[in-house]
Amino acid sequence: MDLIASGELETATRANQIRTLQRAGATRWSSHFTSVSRLIDMFGSTCTLLEHMINGGLNSNIRGEAKGEYKEMRTFEFVFILLLLHKVLGISDMICQALQMKSQDILNALNFVSTTKMLLQNLRENGWNAFFKSVVSFCERHDIDMPNMCARYMEGRRHQKDNITSEQHYHFNIFNVVIDFQLMELNNRFTDQTIELLTLSSALNPVNRFNSFDIDAICTLAKNFYPQDFSQNEIGDLSRQLEHYKFDVVCSSEFQNITSLSELCRRLVETRRSEHFFLIDRLIRLVLTLPVSTATTERAFSAMKLIKTSLRSKMEDVFLANCLVVYVEREITDTIDLDSIIDEFDAVKTRKTKLR
């Protein structure tokens, strides 16, 4: 009721009004945005809870920690950074969620990278005034003291060595620096070479009736990025196979409704066209190994905590990897008949112990 009265929650039919702070996950990128959003939504309630802990904590340690947290949360700098994180992580949240999908389209991933960079750059160049107004509004709503933005910036009890105002400090030393760091991270993770690789790989994408199909781009992909897998003679053979592939597969109604590379690869095998277009099939399989999505990696990290416990701390890497494969790909392993595995293992050699 306090949250509704303070305006932190809105009432609605069938609305879930239960709110708790959420811990940021170690592998789920978007969980950080959720954590920051929850803290902003429950800022007033969190401060009230800390006040109760200060006055009625079980011991001095709890009361002292609560007092320190409360004092920090009530500062302008904390609020400024909190709202800035919410803004930046909110812009990046779309690409975070997209990359966490189990199956992600390469072109969509590239589009999200480009739009995220443009939004961050626009925020840096044109978003300061609107963002600062939101910070001021938040501080006024929660009775948080604001510094004189025109005065010289104070760090602790002493003046900053550089003769800058508080507004300049928050604008250029925090606001711009945080955005620049985020842009730098995106540029480091998605380098020009990576973008070129993904762009060329999209030429194999069967989405929209092979709208991106490009023989030259596919040959360039094999030549520049997979020189160990394709010889010079095979590059020429690949080009000739692609010319036949264009009319036999790309223009075939049998392949028009395919929506992913993995589905295309399966269809080529089912129709035995992979035997004729074996170089194209090889290239598609290589492209399928590109880690566009982080979903499998995140599931592996989560599974590792369940498999390698304190009681199994001496588990060797090979055995751990095998266990992880079985657990992570349980959709496949669940379809395997355990009795057939036992029979095959028993048939390898005569054993003293009967398995059945």
TrEMBL record:
It comes from the Eukaryota. InterPro entries: AtLOH3-like, HATC_C_dom, RNaseH-like_sf. Residues 280-331 form the HAT C-terminal dimerisation domain. SUPFAM superfamilies: Ribonuclease H-like. One of its GO terms (molecular function) is protein dimerization activity. Pfam families: Dimer_Tnp_hAT. This is HAT C-terminal dimerisation domain-containing protein. It comes from Dipteronia sinensis.
